[in-house]
Amino acid sequence: MLARSIQSTVMRRQPQQTRSQERVSHILTAAEALFIEVGYEQTTTRSIAARAKVAVGTLYQFFPDKEAILKALATRYFQAEYQLFAALHTPEAESLSLSDYVDRVIDAFDHFMNSQPGYRAVYEQLLSLMTYSAIEAIDDYEYRIVDELAAFFARLNPDLAGEQAQTIALVVVKVVGDLLWLSASQNPEQQRSLVAETKVLMLGYLGQHLGDRMGQGDVR
After folding, report:
1. Cα separations in angstroms, 107 against 25, 88, 175
2. How confident is the model at residue 186 (pLDDT cuts 50, 70, 90)?
3. Which residues, other chains included, contact 20 with Cβ-Cβ below 8 Å and sequence gap of 6+?
4. Which residue from 217, 205, 213 is spatially nearest to 106, judged by alpha carbons?
5. Residue 156: alpha-carbon gap to chain centroid
6. Domain span at residue 32?
7. Are residues 106 and 38 both part of a single domain?
8. Is the dihedral of CA 135, 136, 137, 143 positive or negative?
9. Could you tell me if residue 80 is inside a domain?
C-alpha cells in the first residue's frame, strides 16, 4: 500500500503486535486533537504522550519527533481518501449516469473533508512545512488516484488515448480537490454554492470526453 510505504519513512518502527498498533493509534488520535485545540507549534511530544496516556519513551519508540507524527497523520488521511476513492470507482459505478457519478463523487469527498475535524489542521501544517518528503508524499498519493481514475475513464471510453485519459484525470483531481478545499473554508451558503458550481464544471468537462458513455448519458 502507498500509505505503508510513506509511513515507513517517518516512523522509527512499524507496530507489529495489536497492542503496539493500538498505542500508535492512540498517539495519532491524541496528536490530532492537540493540533486542533492548541495548534501544531504549541503542541509538544510530551503533551501528546500525556494525552495518549503513554510514556514519552514509548512515543519515541515509534516517532522520532513531532513532524513524524504529523506525517503519519497525513498518511492516515491519504489511506482513508484512497479507500473512499476505491469505493466510489467499483465496476458498478460504470453503469451510473454521468450526473449521478459526479454528484456521488463530489458529495462523498466534500463530506469527508468536512466530517474530519483534523483534516484541515493536518494538511495546512504539512503544506506549511513544505519539506521534500511531505511534497513527495502528497504527489505520490495524488498520482496514484490519477492513474486509477485515468484507467476508469479509459474503460468508459476506449477511444481515449492513454495520455489523454491521464490528462483528463489529472484535471479532475486537481480542480475538484482545490475547489472542495476552498469551499471547506467558506460559510455554509458559499460552501453549498461552490460545491454546486464544481459539479456543473465537472459535468460540462467530463461530458465533452465521456458523453453518453456512462449509464444512459443523463448529462444535465
Report:
1. 28, 11, 15
2. very high
3. 62
4. 205
5. 24
6. 2-65
7. no
8. positive
9. no
